Amino acid sequence: MWADKAKMPSGKTIWLQGLLPILFVWLWFYVQPLSHPIIQQWDEARNAIHAQEMLDNGNYWIRYFNGKPETWELKPPLLIWFQMASTKIFGITEFGIRFPSALAALGMALLLFHFLIRSGTGIILAAIGGIGLLCTPAAMHPHGFMYGDHDALLCFFQASMIVACYGYFETGKTPWLLAAAISLCLGWYTKSIAMAFVLPGIAALALWNPTYRKQLFTLKTLLSVLISVLVIGSYYILRNQQQPGYIGMVNQEEWLGRFANHPDANRDYYYYLEGFYTNRLKWLFFPMLLALGWTIIKGKRNTTAGMACWIILFTLPIISISQSKNFWYDLPLLFPLWICLIGMLSDILKSSPGKSHYLQAGIAVLIVFFSVQSAQKEVAAWRNPVPDSKKEFLVDYIYRNALPSQPVGLYCSDICTDLQFYTNNKKREGNSIEILNLPQELHSYKSIIMARTDSAAWTNSLKKEGLNLPKDCKLVFVNDQGQMP
């Protein structure tokens, strides 16, 4: 139940005991290492290129890749808009691309803290929830809450919608409903249908609880749903006018095809549970499982933990049944999992009022210690990457070295989205540099840079295409030792 505002702690107390520790953890683990190279292959690099090209071409409605409308990454562009704004301030750098995700992670932690405080949880326990959320191993993974992927922003809007829906069900006040509708639209503009993963749990809770059910079927609720659908649909209609066939591609790759028929990512039904146990939650797995069981056994109908339990029990089967399974699809579960855990701890403390201060201190020390220790390990494992493939050697070389003033060609047989991001930045600095795609005329290049292990493949490719290397062209082979003669 919502706490009476008159009984809420003072702003100064909340700031000193709760917000400052959360902010410190965020600055240390999220902001401080944002600039580490290199931009990650796949989603992060592709998003970064979209931001680069939007800045260049001024078309803010369509994602572009290699100068053409995107046909692979079909999500709406809200994340790209935030990345564009960030790079305007911090430059087109790793920091600029990733800062919106880090900011969304802070938003989630503060939202969880405020939500728990408003629900009657003590300040220290609420702060533990915020710190723990930031330090969860899954959140700190390269495809988590700090890198330039969609998921941090998506999970923030999912969390804000959960909070807003709960506020509306409890109070019936229109501002909460408006906040829920806005969160739904912004989340959909971030990562399309993935925003809807948490909706079945929210709807099931509302249908099961008689009080909430009355709020669900009011006219203003139905109107807010209708307006949200129109706002979401308008993007697809307008983009389809500018990029004909877009809706068909989205239906195949995002709305239906990815989740109903995607054999490349079709893994075992227990994929997410196994992931939680082995590397996504690690030491938190059994406490989270206990908290979920605690909430179910207690049968709490209209508490924050009860609502979180409904969302978990509906969202986990949905992503487990899906034909497409990727480890980052479990990230929306972290927010409700921490609500359940803090809810259980709060119940335990309230049942032992005489010893609550000692218990709270002990719980705080244990959770903060293990959370920070786990976070340090994640930092060591993921945020100081060592190139371990021929393409990564080449990317690292381009990132760290000045290039000749004459035209330079880059050759790599691997997928080069991350390499392209740095190539685009070199062009912005005035370099003449291109990624080679054979067959391609080579006479204009004065230097060609490639991974050393590509040399044989390069020679064979030239022979196959009937191409000759210009006599005055310098070949540079790169491996983990840097430039090789």
Number of strands: 7
Backbone shape: globular
Mean pLDDT: 87
- Name the helicity range: 55-70%
Please give the domain count. Answer: 2
Number of helices: 20
Strand percentage, roughly? 5-15%
Task: Write out the strand line-up for the largest beta sheet, numbering strands in chain order.
Answer: 4-3-5-6-7
Model description:
The chain is mainly alpha-helical and 485 residues long. The strands form two sheets. The chain has a five-stranded mixed beta sheet. A two-stranded antiparallel ribbon has the order 1-2. It starts with 10 loop residues before the first helix and ends with a strand. The model has no long low-confidence stretch (mean pLDDT 87). Helix 3 (78-90) crosses helix 4 and helix 8 (199-208) packs across helix 9. The chain folds into two domains: 5-382, no CATH class; 390-484, Cobalt-precorrin-4 Transmethylase, domain 1. It is 62% helix and 5% strand. The longest helix has 27 residues, at 356-382. The protein has 20 helices and seven strands. Strand 6 and strand 7 form a beta hairpin.
List the helices and strands and how they pair.
Layout: H1 11-31, H2 43-57, E1 64-65, E2 68-69, H3 78-90, H4 94-118, H5 123-135, H6 151-171, H7 174-191, H8 199-208, H9 210-216, H10 219-242, H11 246-255, H12 257-260, H13 271-280, H14 285-298, H15 304-321, H16 334-350, H17 356-382, H18 390-400, E3 408-411, H19 417-428, E4 433-435, E5 447-451, H20 455-465, E6 474-479, E7 482-484
Parallel strand pairs: 3-4, 3-5, 5-6
Antiparallel strand pairs: 1-2, 6-7
Helix pairs in contact: 1-4, 1-5, 2-3, 2-19, 3-4, 4-5, 4-6, 5-16, 5-17, 6-7, 7-10, 8-9, 8-15, 14-16, 15-16, 18-19
